[in-house]
Description:
Order of helices and strands: HHHEHHEH
Number of strands: 2
Number of helices: 6
CATH class of the largest domain: Mainly Alpha
CATH superfamily of the largest domain: EF-hand
Shape: elongated
Structural class: mainly alpha
CATH architecture of the largest domain: Orthogonal Bundle
Amino acid sequence: MADDTKENADSLLADIQRRIQEAFDIFDHEANKTVDVREVGTIIRSLVLSKKDTSQPRRELLKAFQVLDSENKGYLTQEELTKYMSEEGEPFTQEELEEMLSAAIDPEKRTILYRDYASVMAVEET
């Protein structure tokens, strides 16, 4: 019985460590095992969330991005998103914009793949 308890505890610990690593990897944009200190709160919130249905917020975010993506490319450029977020509606502050872009920009393609970003944001919203 004690062996089962230890195995369950080890398994739980391994699962927790895996979830933490995955959460940090999402925000490790330079793949150098570091994240921006401003994103730590978001990472922690994503780790303590209950298993709520995130499909509705994700769909709503996707619709919003699709409106901005008038050419239906499946992505936005940094310049496009910066323009929309700083000139339309209630503008983002420079700090808010920088934080959003640091999480949204695909480091290899240098674009915002909004389907992926909407998934991350939907998890953060719940």
